[in-house]
């Protein structure tokens, strides 16, 4: 795909978080129609620097251990340490600072505008994606994180300028609207990590829109939106992103990867209809299921990049929260 033939997001896709009341009904309408929205200036340069410093501390193991951690990094520069990791899942479990980043003002204003008053978060992912690291093939996040009301929304916080060169997000606008989850298939395209690829959808490469954004912007996207990222083809540097996933707190979350840990699943008289993963953080409003309490189940871990080949066990099933 070349950028010359690709569309760019229209002006209506871009909001400015420094303008009070930026999340207008028209902006929410754009999100519902197109499945994504860009909120610029959600973080200022100092905020971005603080998140980057914290990301480095997490990767260096200074905030605690995580699955797949590579040694103690003694004697390595920050750059050498960062380069080893494509993505760390659930960093908010070990970093109080990144836990705080789940609910920044621009995040909360946008989420309550596009989801509704009651919002919870179930996942965070810290992408480092150094030059040469792969992207992720076309997918829909609800393939991995199923809500019951299609309210899943990613809040993708750019910590570097994200460009077509360094592997920004690409979206198929409107692909969420039918509410269909397309079949997924194992792919062996080494531009991508090992996650499966959505297939059989009625859009072509020409419909894909690259979402280039400045550091400090947040890209919001619906859990049924087909999206992907290409590899970081820059010669140096990183494409760092903190992406958190949210949904309406009024929906149960039958997230199978977690269910074996949860009482509602262990009670075999109940069906998946009542299943609810309770490893969630409330972001806004009320939790109608607070009576179930919460659980600390998911552990931070490294996402395999697939650079050494995708081991068989990585393909089916996938790890928690690949979306
Ligand atoms: O940022 C990326 O490279 C992929 C992110 C993604 O697909 C997601 O957050 O669902």
Write a brief caption for the model.
The chain is an alpha+beta fold and 323 residues long. It has helices spanning 25-34, 45-59, 78-83, 96-100, 105-114, 256-259, 263-266; strands spanning 14-16, 36-40, 87-89, 119-127, 136-139, 153-158, 169-171, 184-185, 197-198, 209-211, 218-222, 227-229, 241-248, 281-284, 301-302. It is built from 7 helices and 15 strands.
Topology of this structure?
Elements: E1 14-16, H1 25-34, E2 36-40, H2 45-59, H3 78-83, E3 87-89, H4 96-100, H5 105-114, E4 119-127, E5 136-139, E6 153-158, E7 169-171, E8 184-185, E9 197-198, E10 209-211, E11 218-222, E12 227-229, E13 241-248, H6 256-259, H7 263-266, E14 281-284, E15 301-302
Parallel strand pairs: 1-2
Antiparallel strand pairs: 2-11, 3-4, 3-15, 4-13, 4-14, 5-12, 6-11, 6-13, 7-10, 7-12, 8-9
2-oxoglutaric acid is lined by residues 127, 135-136, 141, 154, 156, 169, 227, 229, 241, 243, 323.
Keywords: Dioxygenase, Oxidoreductase
Pfam families: PhyH (PF05721)
Protein name: Putative dioxygenase
